[in-house]
Design brief:
single chain, 385 residues, alpha+beta, capsid protein of prophage fold, 2 domains, five-stranded antiparallel beta sheet, five-stranded mixed beta sheet, 9 helices
Length: 385
């Protein structure tokens, strides 16, 4: 087989064959790893594609009706009519789905010449594996990091701003979370080791469930760092761990043994009336700021168990526009991955006397809260007034 007939070269050729080869690589777990997938634990991908309007905007609408558990029945006289119940209105908010693009990869003529020499020595499989590891993996990682950063930011702020990356930075939208759902810690701040932190958490749960009139499975979300710094030294937590230890083992937990993180996690999970605590673990790499996190420090989130919302997404215009109106001297190959959210574009372009082979990743997607009426954000650094 000649180099120009190899699967590696066909990755940049327009048509069905090139697309199928790229699809196969993107679906191969032996070649590509799933990293930075925090967002997949909090959001489901919307099965519907949000349409783009005449102005080129894809506007999503997140709606929610307050839950109801019904009420006691009315006593009536025989054949008496029912009292018509009041219908609760829908709450909603809207936003525009932004476009994102990864850093681009360019293979110049001298690099392509080197690839041809490698092909003659090692064959097609080596080049494909190198391309997957050195090029495609970073595009997939970038998309996962972007969705995870936005998801963590939205969950902990109640709004979404994109203030990272080297492109456009903007405030994107504010979820319609009721003002009273932004609350403070309770009698004491969480960093005070004398604060009855477990008691305050249960009291907050009871307060909101009573207000809502519904009793649904809930979960707390905090960072592991927050657990280590505020729960581990907390006097009530330590006392509760010791209490359970003595019940289980029949002996007192000595100071020499101490309270381990695993012991504290297990004990807190058994505290009466307290919903499960889920740790938030996500970090991303920003070329300007370094290591960043979308989660807001000093907050705890109380929300319904399960997914918090959807990843709303729309079609990338590049595929259709380049295919129809792109320079005919160039060639373009497109393929989708990451549940259809990320589009990989391979293009061969003329740059002066030589060709270049480009790879870019494009995405038009954004996380949305769809349990926003029951999403509570607690500032653990401020006590109740």
């Amino acid at each position: 087989m000649k180099f120009h007939d190899s699967n590696y070269v066909k990755l940049w050729k327009m048509g069905r064959e090139g697309r199928e080869i790229l699809d196969t690589i993107l679906k191969d777990p032996e070649l590509l790893r799933a990293n930075h997938t925090f967002w997949t634990t909090k959001f489901a991908v919307d099965p519907q594609i949000t349409p783009t309007n005449a102005e080129g905007e894809a506007i999503f609408k997140s709606t929610m009706r307050p839950l109801t558990t019904g009420s006691l029945m009315d006593m009536r006289a025989p054949l008496g009519d029912s009292i018509v119940e009041d219908k609760k209105g829908m709450a909603y908010y809207t936003g525009v789905i932004p476009d994102f693009i990864t850093k681009g990869t360019v293979e110049k003529a001298t690099e392509r010449w080197h690839k041809e020499k490698l092909f003659d020595q090692f064959g097609d499989a080596r080049l494909i594996a190198m391309y997957a590891t050195d090029v495609l993996q970073s595009k997939l990682d970038s998309a996962n990091q972007t969705l995870s950063h936005m998801g963590a930011y939205l969950l902990s702020h109640g709004n979404l701003s994109y203030l990272v990356g080297q492109g456009i930075q903007d405030n994107l939208y504010k979820a319609a979370i009721p003002a009273e759902n932004f609350d403070t810690a309770g009698t004491g701040v969480w960093s005070d080791k004398t604060t009855k932190i477990l008691t305050q958490m249960v009291e907050k749960e009871e307060k909101f469930k009573e207000k809502w009139g519904v009793d649904m499975p809930m979960q707390w979300e905090i960072t592991r760092k927050q657990f280590r710094e505020e729960f581990m030294p907390n006097e009530q937590v330590i006392a509760w761990v010791k209490h359970l230890y003595e019940i289980k083992n029949g002996v007192e937990l000595t100071t020499a043994l101490g309270v381990t993180e695993d012991m504290a996690i297990e004990a807190v999970a058994k505290y009466p009336g307290l919903s499960p605590i889920v740790f938030i673990e996500e970090k991303q790499n920003d070329l300007v700021l370094g290591t960043v996190s979308g989660w807001k420090e000093g907050v705890a989130v109380l929300r319904p168990s399960g997914y918090a919302g959807y990843i709303r997404h729309t079609s990338i215009l590049d595929d259709e526009i380049f295919t129809k109106f792109g320079n005919k001297a160039n060639s373009y190959n497109f393929s989708k991955t990451l549940n259809g959210l990320l589009t990989i574009m391979n293009s061969t372009v003329i740059n002066g006397n030589f060709q270049e082979w480009h790879t870019d990743g494009m995405m038009a997607a954004i996380p949305t809260l769809d349990e926003f009426l029951y999403h509570v954000i607690i500032d653990t650094t401020e006590a109740d007034a």
